[in-house]
């Protein structure tokens, strides 16, 4: 029996959802992330908090999902916020210029700074 490469947990509180991802976001798992986040929008969620604390790795396929869902959210006056990205994910966001668009947050709300 193989363990899943990614676990997705969702907890709703009114029009806000906390989506916790645990594992690896790559070409195999990115479609599951996209489906979970898009379902939030279809369910009328207007603020999607994505907790990346337990994401081991996120590649450009995961980044594409976050960008696309963020764009879809904005079209419906909703927001996607990334919280607690790993240093690798934080670097990916900053290197691609997406850090301002996705609002990655560190503990206590401090924004990462570009080098």
UniProtKB/TrEMBL annotation:
Question: What InterPro entries has UniProt attached to this entry?
Answer: MlaB-like_STAS (IPR058548), STAS_dom (IPR002645), STAS_dom_sf (IPR036513)
A Pfam family matched in the record: STAS_2
Q: Which SUPFAM superfamilies match?
A: SpoIIaa-like
> What positions does the domain STAS occupy?
18-97
Q: Which Gene3D superfamilies match?
A: STAS domain
- Chain ranges passing through the membrane: none
- What is the name of the protein in this document? STAS domain-containing protein
Q: What is the lineage of its organism?
A: Bacteria, Bacillati, Actinomycetota, Actinomycetes, Kitasatosporales
């Amino acid at each position: 029996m193989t363990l899943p490469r990614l676990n997705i947990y969702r907890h709703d509180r009114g029009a806000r959802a906390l989506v916790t991802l645990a594992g690896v976001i790559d070409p195999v798992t990115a479609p599951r992330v996209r489906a979970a986040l898009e379902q939030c929008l279809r369910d009328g969620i207007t603020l999607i908090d994505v907790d990346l604390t337990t994401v081991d790795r996120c590649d450009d396929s995961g980044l594409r999902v976050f960008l696309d869902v963020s764009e879809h959210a904005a079209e419906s006056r909703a927001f996607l916020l990334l919280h607690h990205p790993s240093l690798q994910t934080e670097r990916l966001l900053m290197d691609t210029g997406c850090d301002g668009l996705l609002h990655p947050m560190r503990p206590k709300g401090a924004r990462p700074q570009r080098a």
